[in-house]
Design a protein that fits this description.
494 residues; Rossmann fold; 6-stranded mixed sheet; 5-stranded parallel sheet; 20 helices; 11 strands; 10% strand
Length: 494
């Protein structure tokens, strides 16, 4: 039997591997692990750095690339071909009905969701069904996860750190869970210990961190942060900063209230947290049904473009236009308007009676502004007070909420607003270690120069913070499900 090992895999870029190494060092120290398996070989520019020479000498390092090469090439490809065929045919039996089925086991549920969003993101045009080429590409991607898992099992991997819980990596996650491998997910500069039987993603906040924050963080400090983040538009979170700093393109009358549908990126996965109780399978089916319902409303409804849609190369104006034409032909309801970010988030929240989102961060921001949001899938507020939001259990209940004329029902109380602001503060200032490594969230199609800058900035920061970052890895998953940044680690864990 091989000694127990840890796996670092997923779509980690070089700058992310850079800051993950000291965190990984901390996990290995705590779990007494001496062998690390990387998905791909470490870049030479990382290995040559003096700060990592000690790290590299402390562990037995391997890569999946090297391990795969040990297997007979012909046998490996025959096996892969079999799995490609399997997933290709299985994709024809995946549907929105299957996504919402309560009959599937937790493992099967994860597999179905993995196939769905891997196919959708590999589509060239379609958002509502799988394209033929997408089925093939996705089947190849999914088959690779089988090969990965077999190697990880053989190498006695007991712990894994991955970056995504969606697309084809969702399938690998499901396989590792079935094998009872301990899994940590690194996303948006937060490290999260996963549960075996449910998702625990970046849209969650450990309730114990929230409760303990009352002992350490004053309400005045939170209010100062709130003013800086929203009222001054100085957020660390790039999407929030983009949305808050939009210049109003027309004169706004704050007395003319409206309702808003906050769009997601249609091709992005809705399944960072699989909510088996949700009433819509994905973003497309949700938007379609929502527009059908609000077309019967006598109130004004705004469809708000996602702030990073352009970064994804997604023309949401065209998508919505085509959707409305398909639904209503040439009789598009006058009460529905698509807005290409004509106003800032702050202005939008001040104008809004009802806010609807599938599971977006906007639901928490809306709550901070005194709006009880309508959500479809489990997200941040669901861990706290059920009276702070509306999550319909049926289409009928959803319809009634959207057409409700008493908008006072969507007003949050003063205490609920205070709680929401504290939750938001915890997410962006306590569990997030972006500042510790001088990093920030990047988009898929980011300029290559951005990644070079990040690598340089992070490397510089690691020289001062290496030992502290080790502590993040050492303590994650002990008292709390999530990481704590350097500034708060010693305050929360004593």
């Amino acid at each position: 039997m091989n000694p127990k090992s840890i796996f670092l895999g997923g779509a980690f870029r070089d700058h992310q591997i850079l800051f993950m190494l000291p965190i990984l060092d901390g996990i290995c120290k705590k779990k007494k692990i001496k062998k690390i398996i990387f998905e791909k070989r470490l870049n030479k520019k990382i290995k040559k750095e003096r700060i990592f020479k000690k790290f590299l000498n402390n562990y037995n390092l391997e890569s999946l690339e090297d391990t795969q090469n040990k297997e007979n090439y012909l046998i490996r490809n025959i096996k892969s071909f079999f799995w490609i065929i399997f997933f290709f045919f299985k994709s024809f039996f995946v549907s929105r009905v299957k996504l919402l089925s309560k009959k599937n086991t937790w493992f099967d549920c994860q597999v179905v969701h993995s196939i769905w969003d891997t196919c959708i993101i590999n589509n060239k045009k379609e958002l509502n069904k799988f394209e033929f080429l997408s089925r093939i590409i996705s089947s190849i991607f999914l088959s690779r996860q089988i090969n990965k898992f077999k190697i990880l099992k053989k190498e006695n991997v007991k712990y894994a750190v991955i970056q995504h819980t969606v697309y084809e990596e969702r399938f690998l996650l499901a396989l590792m869970r079935k094998q009872k491998i301990n899994i940590f997910v690194q996303t948006k500069h937060v490290l999260i210990k996963q549960k075996l039987n449910e998702d625990y993603g970046f849209k969650h906040l450990d309730k114990n961190i929230f409760l303990d924050s009352y002992k350490i963080i004053s309400h005045n400090k939170i209010e100062k942060y709130w003013k800086k983040r929203f009222l001054l538009g100085n957020s660390k979170y790039r999407e929030a900063k983009i949305a808050s700093n939009i210049k109003n393109k027309k004169k706004i009358n704050l007395k003319e209230k409206e309702n808003v549908i906050m769009l997601h990126i249609f091709k992005d996965s809705p399944f960072t947290n699989i909510d088996r109780s949700r009433i819509f399978a994905d973003y497309y089916s949700w938007v379609y049904a929502t527009l059908k319902i609000v077309s019967k409303s006598d109130e004004k409804w705004i469809i708000r473009k996602h702030p990073s849609a352009d970064k994804w190369g997604e023309n949401q104006s065209e998508i919505i236009k085509d959707l409305l034409i398909d639904m209503f032909k040439n009789q598009i309801p006058k009460n529905i308007t698509f807005e290409d970010n004509m106003k800032s988030n702050i202005t939008q929240f001040r104008l809004t009676n009802k806010l609807v989102t599938f599971s977006g961060n906007s639901h928490l921001e809306a709550s901070c502004f005194g709006i009880k949001p309508i959500i479809i899938s489990k997200t941040t507020l669901c861990n706290f007070d059920k009276k702070m939001f509306y999550k319909p259990k049926s289409i009928k209940e959803y319809r009634n909420l959207l057409l409700e004329k008493d908008n006072k029902k969507f007003k949050a109380t003063h205490s609920q607003i205070k709680k929401s602001k504290r939750i938001l503060y915890c997410i962006h200032n306590i569990i997030n270690y972006a500042e510790d490594i001088d990093s920030f969230h990047v988009f898929r199609k980011e300029n290559k120069k951005v990644f070079k800058i990040l690598f340089k900035n992070i490397l510089k920061k690691l020289n001062d913070n290496y030992e502290d970052l080790k502590k993040i890895g050492f303590y994650v998953g002990q008292k709390y499900q999530q990481s704590l940044n350097i500034n708060h680690l010693n305050k929360f864990i004593k």
